[in-house]
Amino acid sequence: MPNSACALLFSGGTDSTCAAALAAESFSEIHLLTFSEHATRYSPVPTARVRELQAAFTKNRFQQVILSNDRVLRYLCYHGYLRSVLQFGFYNLATPGLSSLSWHLLTIHYCLQHRIKVVQDGLTRELMHFPGHMDFFVAKLKCLYAEHDLRYENPVREWPTPYDQQFLDRLLVDYRGVPPAKPGSPTGTTTGDYLHKLGLSPAKNIKGTRLDHLTQHDCYPFVLYNILCFWLMENLFGFESFEEGLKRFFETKFQLARVLLEKKRHSKLFELVEP
């Protein structure tokens, strides 16, 4: 039986729950970190999912941790805001990526506090228009973790997308994600398949269903960002040019994240999480 611990960014959705189930094969203790900001304060806390995992893996210990990322998010959004607006303009509306970065900053701090060396999440190749899902962002995260002697892994990153993903979700939100296979074609095991086989999901794909909304904590608001991405920047400049701008914008934000972590390292009075 494994005897080490890992931290896992956990919303309670299909992908992060699958990642947690996979982690149970390698780690005896899994710290499930869920992040809450003001915009998601009415979203369900995934306690039911944690209980299901504990019931399915009785030899493992799943520790649920809820952290507010409001303080860190405000810093990433508004520190040097005027200068950032003058330099990057509308890219400052890429708030889903700022939320993602705030989670990982707090995860690094949590792991250093609890002497955890491995971090995982349920990131896939769906929703690839969000900054936090883009390859350049993931590469920067791996470097940031490595600077603190931590290993960041994405165990379901390359898993296939379910063919029956809801049509409207793909049309309005995720048309840049991996296209689903046609019904009946071989796709390999999806995250939903894996949970269904374990008895942790009533169907092979519950994404977008009422059950999904009731058991998953929202990650961040994204309507304004989608307008920025699809209606403005892509039409004016093309998506590739938009992504290049995001790379430049987030280079400055990753530097801010390093500043925050350094401040915390040198001052016990400096708090990253609001009480």
Descriptive report:
With 275 residues, the protein is of the alpha/beta class. It has helices at 14-23, 47-56, 70-78, 81-88, 95-114, 135-146, 167-172, 191-198, 210-215, 223-237, 239-266; strands spanning 5-9, 29-36, 61-68, 118-120, 151-153. The protein has one domain: HUPs (Rossmann fold, 3-Layer(aba) Sandwich). Helices cover 48% and strands 10% of the residues. The longest helix is centred in the last third of the chain and has 28 residues, at 239-266. The mean pLDDT is 87.
Strand content range: 5-15%
Instruction: Assign a percent range to the helix content.
Output: 40-55%
Low-confidence stretches: none
Give the total of domains.
1
Largest sheet descriptor: 5 strands, parallel
Q: What sort of overall outline do the alpha carbons produce when their principal axes are compared?
A: globular
CATH architecture: 3-Layer(aba) Sandwich
Strand order of the largest sheet: 3-2-1-4-5
CATH topology descriptor? Rossmann fold
Instruction: Please work out how many helical segments DSSP would assign.
Output: 11
Question: Roughly what is the average pLDDT, rounded to an integer?
Answer: 87
Class from helix and strand fractions: alpha/beta
Query: What is the count of β-strands?
Result: 5
